[in-house]
Specification:
Layout: E1 2-7, E2 12-21, E3 24-34, H1 40-58, E4 62-66, H2 74-92, E5 98-101, H3 103-110, H4 118-129, H5 137-160
Helix pairs in contact: 1-2, 3-5, 4-5
């Protein structure tokens, strides 16, 4: 099962693709979708096009998205909501199941504590996937989201058996 993890943002969204084979995750790809230099409308179009391209290239069975945490700045929350909406629409338009996980759930699943910092997430993602060097922060967050979904999917599969 291929899982596409997304850490949505209005300027730089991270993505991570893993494959869950026999309950062992395998790294496929990761990176960032950088749209900060574009106008607001162009950012959303570019994010949608990038999502469609990722879905076409990797053919994921599901998409795991980091859900938002509380922002003090309402404008930031609105912009993040727009980016999340584009990501969710991109997945839903392809009839892909969407799973959402909070930053605390993801950090607890990957690092073992819900308030881990970015470097701890990067380190554990690289260890879990056997990467020679840590991915960027955005890519690490997206891979961590995909890994969280993989853990939960494996657990559900075991319970159902």
């Amino acid at each position: 099962m291929i899982i596409l993890g997304i850490d949505p943002a209005f300027r730089v969204s991270g993505f991570g693709v893993i494959e869950l084979t026999r309950f062992t995750p395998r790294y496929i790809a990761s990176g960032s979708i950088k749209v900060g230099h574009l106008s607001e409308g162009e950012r959303l179009v570019k994010l949608h096009e990038s999502m469609q391209s990722l879905i076409e290239q990797f053919l994921p069975a599901s998409v795991a998205i980091e859900s938002p945490f509380i922002y003090k700045n309402p404008q930031t929350a609105i912009k993040l909501g727009m980016a999340r909406g584009v990501v969710m629409l991109s997945a839903a338009s392809r009839a892909l199941p969407i799973a959402e996980y909070s930053p605390t759930q993801i950090k607890s699943s990957i690092v073992g504590k819900g308030h881990a910092n970015k470097s701890q997430v990067q380190y554990m993602v690289s260890q879990l996937l056997g990467l020679s060097e840590p991915p960027s922060e955005d890519a690490a967050d997206a891979l961590a989201c995909a890994l969280t979904h993989a853990k939960i999917a494996a657990f559900i599969h075991k319970v159902q058996r």
